[in-house]
């Protein structure tokens, strides 16, 4: 849990038992685990952060959003079938989204925000010809190489 009302560079973290006497009337954000992923409730975050464009989910009757990028569904299960049929994708990681949102998590939105801020400062310093040449050169994905590839084994002979 993190207290938003107490002062500090990062918001001070505390446990569930410390909330009762130290942070009883304070605004608190609690990071929860759902299916091995970190989530936060929309009701705790929407007043503090701009969450527009981030896909929200209902888990145990609470509307939540994921903090970090979620892996792509693998195999031929029900999730993979729904993902293939979805026309909406995350702009950063390419994960299929259920509704017309731009991002699958707060982490992907943060990456986009950093890119747009870096792009805005870079374009202010460069002329338009150089910018057009850079865009025409091709775009690479956010991940340069796949994480796993073909395994390279040692040869059987020495």
Provide structural commentary.
Among the domains are: 1-30, no CATH class; 31-70 and 82-119, no CATH class. The chain has 5 helices and 8 strands. Helix content is 30%, strand content 15%. It is extended, with a radius of gyration of 21 Å. Pfam families: PLATZ. InterPro entries: PLATZ. Residues 120-158 are annotated as: Disordered. Residues 142-151 have a biased composition (Basic residues).
H/E element sequence? EHEEEHEEHEEHH
Unreliable stretches covering 5 or more consecutive residues: 136-140
Share of residues in helices? 25-40%
Which structural class fits the helix and strand makeup?
Answer: alpha+beta
How would you describe the oligomerization state of the chains in this entry? single chain
> Average pLDDT, to the nearest integer?
77
Count of alpha/pi helices: 5
InterPro entries: PLATZ
Biased composition (Polar residues): 120-131
Biased composition (Basic residues): 142-151
Pfam family, one: PLATZ
